[in-house]
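Input for the complex:
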Amino acid sequence: MAGQACVHCGADCGKHPVIWDDKAFCCHGCKTVYQILHEKDMGDYYKIQPMSGIRVETESHSNKFAFLDNEELKGQLLDFTDGSISKVKFFVPSIHCASCIWLLEHLDTLNPAISYSTVNFPKKEVYITFRNDQISLRQLAELLAAIHYVPEITLDQLEKKGSLSSSRSLLVKIGIAAFSFMNIMMYSFPEYLPGGDLLEQDFKDVFGWLSFILILPVVFYSASDYFLTAYKGLKHKIISIDLPITLGILALFFESTYAVFSGNGIGYMDSLAGLVFFLLVGKWYQGKTYQALSFERDYKSYFPVAITRLTEEGEEVIPIKNLRKGNHILVRNQELVPADARLIKGKGNIDYAFVTGESIPVPKQKDDFIYAGGRQIGSSIELEVVNEVEQSYLTLLWNQKDKCQTTNSLDNHINKISQYFTLAVLLIAFTAFAFWAFHDFKTAIYVFTSVLIIACPCALALTIPFTFGNTMRVFGRKGFYLKKTDVIEQLHKTTTIVFDKTGTLTLSRKLAVGFEGVELSRDQLDKVKSMVRHSSHPLSAALYEHLKAEPRYEAENYEEIPGLGITGTIEKERINLGSRQFVMGEEERSDSKESRVYLSISGEHKGFFSIKNVYRDGLQTVIDDLKSHYDLHLLSGDNEAEEERLQQIFGSSAVLKFNQSPTDKKAYVENLQKSGKNVLMIGDGLNDAGALAASNTGISIADDVFSFSPACDAILESSKFAQLNQFIRFSSTSFRIVRLSFVISFLYNIIGLSFAVSAILSPLVAAILMPVSSVSVVLFATLSVRWMAARKLH
Amino acid sequence: MSAIIVLILLGILVAGGFLIAFVWAVRNGQFDDDYSPSVRMLFENKKPKEEETIEAENPDPKQ
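Predicted:
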């Protein structure tokens, strides 16, 4: 069935490609983009990276960006405007390759009113400067949408603007530390050579003073964060890893300053600068995050920015925050319902895919209650707002998180170790001081500072950033994105895994079809397939895909009645397909276990197609592997229809719960935690958002990782579900690597301390031992993670 | 002896110049996006106007 690949997006064109300019396209959308680019002679787009285009499944309606005409919203969105020139920043999740950059930076060819545009690839943002007397913001957004780079504009972006990146200041700190490190190393070098003692006093003084000047910005600017966090930790009575680091830095600084002032060379300045430099590099390596991914989404990222309000004077577009209880709003095809509301006009057909993961729309009648977050499929509906956006059911659920997570990060492994470490170091330092004090007080002070200097846990502090930083990168390449490296430790501690069912274990875009009733002839199947071809309803699409028949008929008098079904005539036979009520005139059975499409031909009931969700590939293997290591739980918002099958997959020890509301799920996770479990929650929809936030680790599964996922600690590409068990188990592997690295750095410490307590630590020993220990630990952590990943992750 | 001192001071000045250049580049946002410049330089310049595009800096958040 494989046809040609679409010239624009590379998708399979199927049997009936759209042909234009002798080229095959999978759909009219792709062809239109090609036409636009062809017209402007921008064919290079397809040369840089062939078939790089983006396929848009559902063409958005013409009013999608109407809210950009609203002055208030426009003001919030524009970065800069002086009346004729404006600058704006759009988040475009579909940016993915070199061709995208090329096209988006040549927007001026498409429309001369655009002065220039620049892409920030990792952030998936495009900065556009345009003449707003010639093109409006709305037209600009529509231009991007027309070439299928649909900008995503959400409430979230409007509210937090211009946050200064901390990665820039970290880079400056590293730069300054590196500069001082290199120079001081050069001044220290003569002292380490044979005959270094013969260096003239003048040189010693000059080198000493230069080093002293150079070290000041390193200690007081580059290393300032360590002092700060150590102080904060002490205030909360926590000994963090930053405390021994701070002690080490201060001991080095004062010892060396004393050496300079007393004319004894430059002390340990080079080690100090090197230490700070290595530490900062570790921090930078760990701090690499996925800039385009958002782990902090709340309802604001999902909801539209504006909504059409119906007043007595007619329609008006208002920002969503101005929406009040009792307002009447118009929700068009493919638009989200922004607040809990009651249907007052039209046929509701609400797709709760974002909320529950269930993609089959739910029909709604007049006066039915509709929860915020649903998407209308079909004709426009009128709603009366019952609860304001902030007060809506799901919104309330998302707002009540934040309390449980904060304490976790402080109670991690490294901090526990550093407590013992600091105490041990202080104990050794004081014991050695006391011992030497009997002999010689000056040596005693020297030994005391030496212990603090050499015990400074540089290698220890670098272990976690490099091990976990590398693990995070390896995961990222495999389609599993972590919010930060702490998540790995939480993953490792997991004792209990809680799954959501719909959309997590099942595929949201694929359905299995069966038929029950009178057996249909080949010809009748052909007719059914010819009918469903015209409908864009997900059930029709599933039927069309599943039926092995030829859609060779043209339906006459075809009509689609939203929320009910489709009807039409083929060869004088009237064919009705749709709900029980529509086809058989009987009430819908509320206990139905699956979605059913009833069929009647010429008034004769033939039976129904049953449409079920399909479980993800590899589900059995993933569960089999996980159930021998963890307690498994399943929380489903659906009824028990699938219980037997799920129990088979999960085994008898797993707990399966059905008919769970979002609040139930959250409470269930919290209860597990109260009984001492460390809970990993895996979900997808917004109805899991509460549970994801409450859990120790929340993983959300997404088809498109850049667009839709609730707030969580990690995002898993849905196609990589079959590797979930490997990811979870690998966290323990990287934890073992951390332990081994700790052992290595302790060995160095023992060597170093034996020098220190016997009062023979010289700047030379420190200058060798410190970089060697740091570099070897970093190498060990990096290489072993790579090696284990190549063996364990496939 | 004094020659070496002069050389060392010169060395610091030169290195300091590079440090200042680095800090300037960081603050200017040149390290924010480490992928697109590598691709951008391979695009063919059809029109003189595109040079402007290349030099266009990211909007500074301070604005």
